[in-house]
Write a structure and sequence with these properties.
Structural class: mainly beta
Helix content: under 10%
Strand content: 35-45%
Shape: elongated
Number of helices: 4
Number of strands: 24
Order of helices and strands: HEHEEEHEEEEEEHEEEEEEEEEEEEEE
Oligomer: single chain
């Protein structure tokens, strides 16, 4: 079967895949996924074509559905796959799904949290803890992609990956988060995109960096983001010259904020006036950043004492980030 699938991948790699939608309802819940999704259930095209599932699988309201092992053994999820559960719906994978290299997986839920995804020996919920949330399922499915099974739009990509990623990290740093990734080789790579999400489900684009690597040369890329707090999630997307994209695992960073400190004042502030704040015991520098991560002010500070940062009279109105040690605070300048 594996030999046949690899042969099939070689043929299908010359095609472009339309993303269809397959909906499981109370009317077809007793039928096999491979039968249901090979037909157009929603007027948007079949999601399963020639053993390749590309598009969205919707588990309808009040539906509990099991995807059989026999079906999963003959299906490869490729390109972009979205699993969406509606109200009081549950889905279980009776075997580990086969996922093509570079597939972008998203898990969505509607209405409420009375729904589950069972896969990889784990029950995932919309807002689970300790690796059991819907984004964790999506990450696990992408992490389980099989090298050599990268179904894309050009024959060249079926034989070799354009990028060999050796490192991908997101680390809390001054004024926000430092993102970094390294490659050991790049062939036909066009650019990288960084996306951010506040919930790990809906991502928005942050920036685009052109590829600089050539051949087997080692290359490192960096980007500084200033999300302003919370628990941001980051996704790195690599785009080939032919438009094919590869998504790498989502990284999550918990920003540390010392909530016991009194807030800086005045806030809102004005250019030409002093911004005053309490300096955490371990801090020795106060810095002001723009929301794009660019540092515009820096001054020495003494831990445990009152701090002062003189704002330039030419400081443009807007939102900034004050960072004193690990304390991060939004400052509005009028």
């Amino acid at each position: 079967m594996k030999a046949f699938l690899l042969f099939l991948f070689g043929i299908l790699s010359t095609l472009s895949f339309a993303r269809g939608v397959c909906t499981i309802t109370t009317a077809n819940v007793n039928r096999d996924l491979c039968e249901i999704c090979a037909t157009d259930t929603d007027g948007q095209g079949a999601a399963l074509v020639d053993g390749v599932f590309t598009g969205t699988l919707v588990i309808g309201r009040d539906v509990t559905y099991r995807i059989t092992s026999s079906c999963l053994s003959s299906v490869v999820f490729a390109d972009e796959f979205t699993l969406r559960t509606v109200q009081k719906s549950h889905v279980e994978f009776l075997a580990d799904p086969q996922v093509a290299e570079g597939t972008v997986v998203t898990a969505e839920h509607l209405k409420n949290n009375q729904m589950t995804i069972k896969a990889y020996g784990t029950t995932y919920q919309p807002y689970g803890n300790n690796g059991t949330a819907y984004p964790d399922f999506a990450n696990r499915m992408m992490a389980g992609s099989t090298a050599g099974q990268r179904i894309v739009g050009s024959p060249a990509a079926a034989t070799a990956l354009p990028v060999t990623l050796t490192a991908w990290s997101a680390t809390a740093a001054a004024g926000g988060i430092d993102l970094s990734w390294s490659t050991a080789g790049e062939f036909g790579s066009a650019y990288y995109g960084i996306e951010r999400s506040s919930d790990g489900v809906v991502f928005t684009g942050l920036t685009r960096l052109n590829s600089r690597g050539a051949g087997t040369n080692a290359t490192t890329y960096t980007y500084h983001d200033a999300p302003g707090g919370g628990t941001p999630h980051y996704r790195l997307i690599q785009f080939d010259l032919d438009g094919t994209r590869t998504a790498f695992p989502v990284l999550t960073v918990q920003l540390s904020v010392e909530a016991t400190l009194a807030p800086a004042y005045p806030n809102p502030a004005r250019g030409g006036y002093a911004l005053r704040f309490t300096v955490p015991a371990t801090a020795n520098t106060a810095e002001l950043y723009r929301m794009d991560g660019q540092r515009i002010l820096s001054a020495p500070a003494t831990g445990g004492e009152a701090g002062v940062l003189e704002l330039p009279a030419t400081l443009a109105p807007g939102t900034y980030l004050l960072r004193v040690g690990q304390h991060i605070e939004r400052i509005l300048v009028r």
